[in-house]
């Protein structure tokens, strides 16, 4: 009886803690005004408070060389040093009702400000809602020299259980946690060298990106496939076109927030251009990647895998097109969606080795790789909206101009209010040059 009471009490306490955590999350507000006016140290302090970072975590972010030489030397070959980039936070993101500060690593000005600005517009109407198709990676095995490929295809399907058994023996840990090979698909394709049988192993890699797991399985099962088909197994490698590992996000932005239905129409027209024309779609999708890659990089994930998967998915219909859609709903508001492969992990690779990547993951507080993927998709959608809104209205250069002016004023040595005044003057006079920034700074100093 006592045990029973203790169990019930434990459960009630657990519920109370969970509720409290949920409330804390609900209360958190990723929207700051004037964040850009703070110093990097002040911004880090704000971010640390929001994300619950320790002094140690803060030191990792601010030091810029948290990856020590020894670790770097073990990551890749012929190491001669390390390379640092700015790390920032995307503001204003509300995703599935929860606020996030988004860690972003990029060399490109305007990107973080633009994403934050779009997220601000989206949050006025609830922000972003996301979903995913699970963490299923594909490994491909290329079988050649098969005289009767269609017969071989059916034989492979007949042996599905054995194939799954061979693959899953290679990764008992993945299987123990609920992952492993789940299914297969066999395709007969026409190539320059005749017909080939291509086997797809569909593997649930859970919180790992999964490259190692699926490549090991593909290599392990290849001899058995040769045995049952009489063919020769050639390439055995994952596919970055991870069509069973999609992340999705959607948002509704009120026409009033955008400045009227006319702006909604302009954005929808800008999207129609990308949807119809591969030349425009390439740039449109580059804008999406401007948001996606900084988060992929910050969390230590493989940026090339995400890029190749995204662009391949953009052409899956046979014609390269937009990864997002933008429409006007019955109320005249703007509705946007994104769907793309998102093979990111939380365990293994640079995510586990790079101290800053670990802190970036902690900042997001994600519990699974699919949750991380969803957040990244939402950032891509926000980034795209910001870019096409700017392009469809005032053009991209105005925003760039003030950031450029800010950079030049910083190089000239301006700070605080003086910096703001110099930036304003340079932009309004359309005279954004370092010499002019220096001249203006001198003028302000002489006036003191
Ligand atoms: C620049 O890095 C990205 C844009 O070209 C994206 C777009 O054209 O949609 C502004």
Rg from Cα:
25 Å
The helix content, as a percent range, equals: 40-55%
Q: For the report, how would you describe the main beta sheet? A: 4 strands, antiparallel
Could you say which overall geometry the principal axes of the C-alpha atoms support? globular
Instruction: Give average pLDDT, whole number.
Output: 93
**Distinct ligand kinds:** (R)-mevalonate
Q: What is the beta-strand fraction?
A: 15-25%
Low-pLDDT residue spans: 1-8, 10-14, 16-24
Strand order of the largest sheet: 3-8-10-9
The number of helices is 19
User: Which class best fits the helix and strand makeup?
Assistant: alpha+beta
Number of strands: 10
Structure description:
The protein is globular and about 85 Å long. The strands form three sheets. It has a four-stranded antiparallel β-sheet. It has a four-stranded antiparallel β-sheet with strand order 5-6-4-7. A two-stranded antiparallel sheet has the order 1-2. α11 (261-276) crosses α12, α12 packs antiparallel against α13 and α17 packs across α19 (434-447). It has 448 residues and is an alpha+beta fold. The termini are far apart. The protein contains 19 helices and ten strands. The protein has helices at residues 2-27, 40-51, 55-63, 69-75, 111-123, 149-158, 160-169, 172-176, 211-229, 255-258, 261-276, 278-298, 303-314, 349-353, 355-364, 369-392, 397-412, 416-428, 434-447, and strands spanning 87-95, 98-105, 128-132, 136-144, 180-191, 194-204, 232-239, 246-253, 324-328, 334-341. The model is unreliable at 1-8, 10-14 and 16-24 (pLDDT under 50).
